Amino acid sequence: MSCAYMQSPGLVWCSTTCTSSYPGSTICMFFVQDQVFPGVIYLTYLCVLTCCMNRPKNTEMGTKVGHEFSWLSRYAPEFCVKGENIEILETPTDFYQKLKSEAKNAQKRIVLAALYLGNGGLEEDLVGSVIDAAKKTDNNVKVDILLDYVRGSRGENNSKTMLKPLIDQYNGSDKLTISLYHTPKLRGLLKKYLPARWNEVIGVAHLKVFIFDDTFIISGANLSNDYFVNRQDRYMVFHDCGQLADYFHQLVNTVGMFSFQLVSDTNQKLTYNGDHHPFEGDENAFKKGAQESVMALIKRHLAQNALTNVKLFQEGIISKTKLGLSNFFQYSTSFLTSISNAALSLLGFDKSIVENYESSQISTHEMTQNFISQTTSDKQNTNCKFDTWVYPTIQMGLFGIRQDEVVTETLMKTFPKGSTVSFTTGYFNVTDKYCYEVVNNAANYNILLSSPEANGFFGSKGFSGYIPAVYIHLCKKFSKKVALYNRKEDISLWEYIRDGWTFHGKGMFCYLPGEKLPSMSLIGSPNFGLRSVSRDLEAQVVVVTKNPKLQQRLHDEQNYLMKHTRKITSETFQQPRYNVPRWVAFVTFFIKRYF
Predict the structure, then answer these.
(1) Distances from the Cα of 292 to the Cαs of 146, 297, 304, 350, in angstroms?
(2) Cβ within 8 Å of residue 249, ≥6 positions away
(3) Helix (H) or strand (E) holding 219
(4) Among the four residues 240, 356, 374, 393, which has the most C-beta atoms within 10 Å?
């Protein structure tokens, strides 16, 4: 390590070149006399990250940094939880019953974010469970709902009409917020002439997040009958994880800020209170405002993580490598307020975060406790050894937010040789980047996708009935690429085929070399396709665990999904059900970005 110092009255600039943990990286720190600006801990952290954004090497993934995927904290907020608090559901019925029971017993908050709410009896009962919670608490339970504007408005009997009893229950109270996101790309002639269903291909809110007090559920499932009965998806429940629930609640509320609001009148009137209307105002201004709002949330939590890590480093719970510094120092008792706007802008750092943290003569202990205290319900105490780490990732390519895409691509790049990865998607339209990483990485892959019969569009009328053929064509192209790269022995394709069922599951399981149980899983809303990375609003989590029982539960889930599968071979592609009309193969090139 080499260090260079520049000093002016009361201010010292330290530039440190690391040669140990992060070779060649430069760390910059501001000192005020013998004090350090605590916010600069975050700025320093960002400097380290900026210098280390190159592909992480497997040699960095040792136990000295907590777990094999610790590099994820460079890209996403990190939440430490106990594996025993994570429940994995298997069936759509389990999912539905969990939603109802959690909703009925909620005391503080209920958050439902999905593409849409269906209009059948099961959905009506689910809304009834939310109403029951409202009645039990005299309408004091806070209810926030986020749906897609276009999908939620399809038909006369739609998501909006299904929510009218809930609106009536709250009778104008600010304890109920129903937001409907409208993509800024659907405007002008497209909005005027694209018919229902087809207008949804332009872009939707695709988040699948459900919160009940401090219980957080993430899935790829929507809130409608098929997803409660016979459409297989994945479902993960985090109990007593208040901070993680808070993060996703804030995400839902942030998206709600630039969405329409459903107000309590008989005409189901929608109002928009944002600065820039999504389809009547300036499109670029809308996207810029949305980007700033979501990025402020991400940065705020990255800052909290950095200060939490400082505290944990002080107590010897995490290493200096995990903290991102190779030499550390004593912390300050006050904030440096003279950081220039230019420096903050250069780092992409929101100055309001610094301003919000300012306080006079706050002690080191008090400063870190402000952030640590939010996690004590999850961690019990800071001396506890945690066995599971959760990293939320957000994808809103339309707004220039590609956090999930970067994390997913980096995971694919860095799976160690000899790993086995189960990769799952209901709609096989994987981006070129992801395909490239799969065939070029040394890991073995089992890729699970829908059979033509298990595709949600199978048997649809009109052009929609040919959408399964689009995915078949893309699957065949990928299979040829696997053969071209001589990877047929270690990349296998499997089709989910189950009479009367469709398949909608998505995510990953990673078995590290020599391990019989997975230690990492991705779960959430993205389908890993072109529209997921560029058109829709998506969110998922990366779950990394050393908890043997949770690892076994993940393994059991993976086996359950594979229970109704058959391996896809060259003979499979010769079967009549895998035939692709020539015109479908031709148009796929032009339309694949919309599916």
Answers:
(1) 19, 9, 18, 9
(2) 109, 111, 144, 211
(3) strand 215-219
(4) 393
State how beta strands 401-402 and 26-32 pair. unpaired
Tell me the domains of the chain and their CATH numbers. Answer: 2-65+296-379 (no CATH), 85-281 (3.30.870.10), 388-594 (3.30.870.10)
Residues acting as catalytic residues: 206, 208, 213
b/e per residue 202-221 (b: at least 16 CB within 10 A):
bbbbbbbbbbbbbbbbbbbb
Residues paired with residue 217 on neighbouring β-strands, in sequence order:
210, 237
Contacts of 1 (CB under 8 A, 6+ apart): 16, 17, 18, 19, 20, 326, 327
- State pLDDT tens for residues 487-535: 999 999 999 999 999 999 999 999 999 999 999 999 999 999 999 999 9
Q: pLDDT tens digits for 289-343?
A: 999 999 999 998 888 777 766 666 666 655 555 544 332 223 232 332 333 333 3
User: What is the Cα–Cα distance from 344 to 377, expressed in whole angstroms?
Assistant: 33
Q: Residue 320 and residue 313: Cα distance in Å, rounded? A: 7
Contact 566, 533 (CB under 8 A): no
CA distances, 523 to each of 97, 237, 257, 408, 548 (Å): 20, 11, 25, 11, 19
Q: Is 265 left (phi over 0), alpha (psi -120 to 50) or beta?
A: beta
Distance CA 520, CA 542 (A): 7
DSSP letters spanning 329-356 = -PPPSS------HHHHHHTT--HHHHHH
Q: Could you write out the three-class secondary structure of 44-97? A: HHHHHHHHCCCCCCHHHCCHHHCCCCHHHHHCCCCEEECHHHEEEECCHHHHHH
